[in-house]
Amino acid sequence: MAKELAWSYRIILLVYAIYVAFFALIWLTTPLKALAGGFLLGGLISLYNIYHLTLRVRIAGLRILSGSRRIAGLHMITRVLMVVFGALLVYRLPDWIDYRSFVLSLPFGYFLFVAVVTIYYLRKTTSSHEGGETLGSDSESEISGHDIFDVTVMIGTVVSALIVFLLVLLLTRRLSMRPTGKQNLMEYIIDFISGITGMMLEAKQAAKYLSFALTTFLFILVANLLGVIVMVNAEAHGPIPSLGITSELLKSTNAVSWFKSPTSDINVTVAMAGAIFIYSHLAGIFRSPKDYLGHYVKPFAWMLPLHLIDELSKPAATHAARLWANIFAGEVLILILREGAPYLTAVPLFAWMGFSVFVGCIQAYIFTVLAMVYISQKVAAEH
Q: Are the CB atoms for 248 and 241 separated by under 8 Å?
């Protein structure tokens, strides 16, 4: 039970870290601060409550197993008080915390915990049956790290975010009324992104989404170019299960990739496109629920299924797959050319790397444009 709880805690913390980062980014870069504030507050209270509940259940179980006559309560009043505290904050700060998003996010931790534990036991049951074992045996059938985490993607994502942060910090230091050098470069980038947002939205709305579009463009641009400029491989001479390097993997090759473009992984592009998809629909709902729902039955009610298919196909088919396919194919060809004879593949390799830089820039632009198109379809005044 301790192992199951420890594994569940790690997964829940990882999901919550992504959850908090996503809504913190919305709070910082978009006008929907009250919406994001509600999800942040409700989510954090839900996280505290689920951890408090599991802790009390564990204490109660340990006392029963030890034969103690002292009953350990679940302290439900503590969790209720946390919700009451959050409700008071919503009441006192309506401009900063939206009550609807706060209420919607309160059960998130409980649903997440049930889902994680269910997945754990389903995987455990499957692996036990494949190994000729039954539940309750002493053999271990835990989910190893390589089934959940891709360390290469995690490293690339963190490095990309750090590069974007440091780049913007460097270009915006010591600003002056007469821009020169690095300030000119930053202003050029901002003007370029302003043109993207201005194509879809009115000037006032476009200004609100400028920082979002700028962050999206810079992150994807850096992530696209990482695999072209830097590829780090190493040799593993023994299994490292925590990093996903197993004996089975080492039987085929000792070469381990440690660095690549995060956007060459379909999971990353789907996650980013999915986040934009969710945000655009939430923005449309909170702008005008009536207009948002009415869009699906215009111009005729029988077109509802077509509208639903169109909306559901956007994040994966048209947004994520385009970015992933271009970057992934480029990196595969670079690896193939790199393994060839230098006197045959050197010139094509450098030519393709130059073309890959161009493709990376174009794909960052297209992804940002599509993100703003999808958002503008939900928040534009004429929608």
A: no
